[in-house]
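Input (structure):
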């Protein structure tokens, strides 16, 4: 990411971000400070806040730490775990706390409710409360009723829904180059302030960011809409991405049966502008903290509203099936019984270019392999520390080659580009039997077979 200078001319708005040490809150806070606003990130996680105060980011995201230090140095960005210090006199307070899944799939709103109750005591004058957390329709009304109940003299507020579409690993890029900005509001005054906040992004005027020809484009579309629609745009977008992935994984299974190649099929489909090429990579399925959680929450919303959603349920089922298909492929190569077989797993994060292992399907595959009695070893280029602290029972290796000594099957579960650079001739020598299950279609099948591997992937000709 190029060096960025804050806008000299921006009308600096005082912003507080509650949940400001989390992924969405932090990227948003640092991005808004870079644009020229005055930002305070508030978070109850004191450890993360202390780390941030020292200029060190608790999440690994390209370019983030540099902009963190730059904006702290410029006095536009500060951190606190104390709401009393962090909220007044903010003009906009973002709620960016987590909405994890409850056991029944519904979004757990307890953090949203808690911060709303805490906020009440600290608002001053007119404040816009902008909800960034992914929340079901009706949450805005809930937040509003809590605030109204405790409203004090002289305090005025409006609530807007401003959902987030950042991808992990591309957080800052997505912040400065959004495809759209969604603002759900009832109040024109609040809508106006949100437009002002995002103006440098909408008109692509943040210095140092939009310097290539590809960025000489029209302003970013702003979807000015009602509160319920704004919240549904977020859920529907994530559900649609999940549906594309499940769709292509189902077609991949069919390709294997009829001898077609899913990569060719996806390429051929993607040239149709009505379809497009993105989110058509067949593989292990969708993991991570968002797509599955939001899909489950949407299904729950539908249930609560007595609305049949068989398609959404099928998207989820297909994703669960995908892990079983990968296990079946490992069994096929290992001779069906996995008991005491050494299975080496490459890739523990839910996707490449992140150290995040939350809801990583790799861990579900490992759990299943372990259940079948296999001796699992794992390697990942960045996430070993995270995995070690959360899953001390796993056998981890710092070195990919060491992890493969006497292994019966290598299973590739994350599409890290680093795996392309490995010496596969050496790998073949190290393994007890040269077998690869490539659950991300990362490697070239012909090349792997030329090395002498028994190789299978997703939706392409078998072994
Ligand atoms: C996703 C959405 O892409 C963001 O727009 C959204 O803001 C975010 O969730 C959120 O709600 O916070 P992210 O969780 O970072 O972003 O992950 P993605 O890059 O979308 O990937 C999700 C999963 O799908 C990964 O496991 C990835 O490997 C898998 N995937 C993705 C495929 O299997 N095939 C594909 O073609 C694309």
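Output (sequence):
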């Amino acid at each position: 990411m190029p060096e960025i200078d804050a806008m000299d001319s921006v009308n600096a708005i005082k912003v507080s971000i509650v949940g400001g040490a989390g992924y969405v809150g932090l990227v948003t806070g640092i991005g808004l400070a870079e644009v020229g606003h005055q930002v305070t990130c508030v978070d109850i996680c004191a450890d993360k806040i202390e780390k941030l105060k020292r200029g060190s980011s608790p999440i690994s995201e390209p370019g983030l730490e540099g902009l963190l230090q730059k904006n702290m140095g410029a006095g536009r960005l500060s951190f606190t775990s104390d709401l009393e210090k962090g909220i007044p006199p903010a003009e906009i307070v973002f709620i960016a706390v987590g909405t994890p899944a409850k056991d029944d799939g519904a979004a757990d709103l307890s953090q949203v409710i808690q911060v709303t109750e805490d906020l009440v005591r600290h608002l001053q004058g007119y404040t816009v409360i902008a909800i960034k957390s992914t929340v079901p329709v009706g949450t805005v009304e809930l937040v509003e009723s809590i605030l109204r109940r405790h409203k004090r003299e002289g305090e005025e507020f409006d609530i807007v829904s401003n959902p987030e579409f950042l991808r992990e690993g591309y957080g800052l890029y997505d912040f400065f180059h959004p495809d759209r900005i969604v603002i759900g509001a009832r109040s024109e005054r609040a809508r106006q302030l949100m437009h002002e906040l995002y103006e440098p992004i909408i008109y692509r005027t943040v210095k140092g960011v939009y310097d290539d020809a590809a960025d000489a484009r029209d302003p970013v579309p702003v979807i000015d809409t009602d509160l319920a629609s704004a919240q549904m745009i977020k859920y529907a977008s994530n559900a649609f991405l999940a549906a594309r992935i499940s769709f292509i994984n189902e077609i991949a299974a069919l390709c294997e049966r009829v001898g077609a190649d899913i990569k060719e099929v996806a390429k051929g489909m993607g040239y149709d502008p009505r379809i497009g090429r993105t989110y058509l990579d067949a593989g292990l399925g969708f993991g991570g903290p968002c797509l599955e959680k939001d899909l489950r929450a949407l299904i729950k919303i539908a249930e609560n509203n007595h609305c049949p959603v068989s398609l959404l349920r099928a998207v989820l089922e297909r994703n669960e099936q995908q892990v079983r298909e990968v296990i079946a492929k490992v069994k096929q190569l290992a001779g069906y019984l996995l008991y005491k077989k050494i299975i080496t797993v490459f890739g523990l994060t839910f996707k490449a270019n992140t150290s995040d292992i939350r809801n990583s399907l790799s861990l579900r595959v490992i759990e299943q392999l372990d259940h079948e009695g296999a001796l699992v070893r794992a390697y990942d280029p960045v996430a070993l520390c995270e995995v070690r602290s959360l899953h001390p029972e796993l056998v981890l290796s710092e070195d990919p080659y060491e992890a493969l000594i006497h292994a019966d099957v290598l299973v590739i579960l994350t599409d890290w580009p680093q795996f392309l650079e490995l010496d596969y001739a050496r790998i073949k020598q190290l393994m007890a039997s040269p077998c690869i299950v490539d659950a991300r279609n990362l490697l070239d099948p012909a090349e792997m077979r030329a090395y002498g591997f028994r190789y299978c992937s997703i939706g392409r000709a078998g072994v």
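Notes: The chain is about 40% helix and 15% strand. The mean pLDDT is 93.
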